[in-house]
Design a protein that fits this description.
Blueprint: E1 17-19, E2 22-25, E3 28-32, H1 45-48, H2 51-58, H3 72-85, E4 89-93, H4 96-108, E5 112-116, H5 121-132, E6 136-140, H6 145-154, E7 160-165, H7 177-186, E8 190-194, H8 220-223, E9 231-236, E10 246-250, H9 252-261, H10 263-266, H11 273-310, E11 323-327, H12 334-343, E12 346-347, E13 349-351, E14 362-366, H13 373-389
Parallel strand pairs: 3-12, 5-6, 5-7, 7-8, 8-9
Antiparallel strand pairs: 1-2, 2-3, 4-10, 9-10, 11-14, 13-14
Helix pairs in contact: 2-11, 3-11, 4-5, 11-13
């Protein structure tokens, strides 16, 4: 992986111009299937138009750390967000990474972190920080919940935090939330869910929903019919809402605890005013038009998945959510595959070991509501050409391969792509 960085055109790309979901890199135009701006709010004039009035009132950046001073925008967004999610309270911090690096160690103390192996790389980094403060880190696979139960039963550490992704950033799949919540309750643990890719995309189910993604975009917990008893939800505005902002949804007592113990609240500068503006305007736009955007996103994701399956290709996605990774049967060919896609005008997230396990080396397609039908057709045409030239893994109907679960940390434990 380090050998490739800086020597291939598809990593560390400098984008010179954008036009919808097309980007220009030097003299070459590409269709962007690496963006995670799922709802297209980054391109919505009604949202971006509010930025000047916010800056006129608040300046470009409130430079206080939140412990010193809070523009009322924070309190307003936290209240609006709590209502949307259906939680008691929320706490805004700059990014999900900031949260994992500070909130997770604070919750774990000198207890134990039970960490799902496919959880996002930044959660693994947060667990390492917790370990430096005395916590024990114990890893597990979602596919082996009896193994997790045995590890919980064998541990004498408290407090306990079970950490999982909501919508996984590589597979596009959700967790067995009800089973995890039952284990957390049985073994007196907090269930900590990173829903960076689900918030805004998935929501509560209803008879009149416009798509299987559900309504309101209030996240994986509501989508799966769960509740927040014993659960801490972490999410962000940087994906569906296209704004630099993140949150912890939690009871008031945990919020008050984090205001003292979470470093970014106490020491870091806050998000810029433009991001607070687009987050608040995005919440309003979501209430009025979000379900239509989610329905369009579902339609485009379904077209991509249908086209890939028609080609006989394997994908880790079993849910229909708008993250589609296509594995490569021969991982050493990842560099020429990435060049092939790039040179034919398709920007995707090309992922190799140790970003992911060798068995899951391939490329990730992120679909957004702003991708056009013509762009989807071109994507499928290029993927078909790639399948003729490269050994993309073929669908077999067998379960996805997984690395053996061991007590030691494997070389590749988590997705590292945002």
């Amino acid at each position: 992986m380090h050998r490739l960085r800086g020597h291939v055109p598809f990593w560390d790309v400098v984008v010179d111009q954008t036009d919808g979901r097309r980007i220009r890199v030097g003299d070459q135009w590409l269709i962007d299937f690496a963006s995670c701006n799922y709802l297209g709010f980054d391109l919505e004039p009604e949202i971006s138009a509010v930025v000047p009035e916010y800056i006129a009132q608040w300046g470009t950046h409130p430079s206080w750390c939140r412990l010193v001073g809070n523009p009322r925008l924070f309190a307003e967004i936290e209240a609006e967000l709590a209502e949307l999610l259906g939680v008691e309270d929320t706490l805004l911090l700059p990014t999900v990474s900031h949260i994992h690096f500070s909130v997770l160690p604070a919750l774990a103390g000198t207890g134990a972190v039970f960490l799902e192996l496919r959880a996002h790389h930044t959660m693994h980094e947060g667990a390492r920080m917790a370990a430096t403060r005395g916590a024990r880190v114990i890893r597990f696979r979602e596919e082996n919940l009896p193994g997790l139960a045995r590890k919980l039963a064998a541990s004498d550490r408290y407090p306990r935090v079970i950490c999982v992704d909501g919508v996984n950033s590589m597979t596009g799949n959700g967790p067995p939330l009800a089973e995890l919540a039952e284990l957390a309750d049985r073994y007196d643990a907090v269930l900590y869910v990173d829903d960076a890719h689900g918030f805004g995309v998935l929501g509560e189910r209803s008879a009149d929903e416009l798509s299987p993604y559900g309504s309101r975009g209030n996240g994986i917990v509501r989508h799966l019919g769960g509740d927040y008893d014993g659960l801490v939800l972490v999410g962000g505005f940087s994906k569906a809402y296209s704004s630099l902002l993140a949150f912890v949804a939690c009871p008031p007592e945990i919020r008050n605890f984090l205001r003292i113990t979470a470093g970014p609240y106490t020491y870091s500068g806050p998000p810029p005013v433009a991001s607070l503006a687009t987050a608040q305007a995005g919440l309003r736009f979501n209430a009025a038009h979000g379900d239509e955007r989610r329905a369009e996103l579902y339609r485009q994701a379904a077209r991509v998945l249908s086209g890939i399956r028609a080609l006989g290709l394997d994908t880790l996605n079993a849910t229909g959510f708008p993250i589609v990774e296509i594995p490569l049967a021969e991982p050493e060919l990842i560099e020429p595959l990435g060049r092939f896609l790039f040179e034919r005008g398709i920007l995707t997230s090309v992922v190799s070991y140790p970003f992911v396990s060798r068995s899951e080396t391939g490329f990730r397609i992120s679909i957004t509501a702003a991708n056009t039908d013509e762009e989807i057709e071109e994507l499928l045409r290029v993927v078909a050409a790639a399948a003729d030239r490269f050994p993309l893994r073929r669908a077999t109907g067998d379960p996805n391969p997984s690395d053996a679960e061991t007590g030691a940390e494997p070389a590749a434990v988590s997705p590292a792509i945002a």
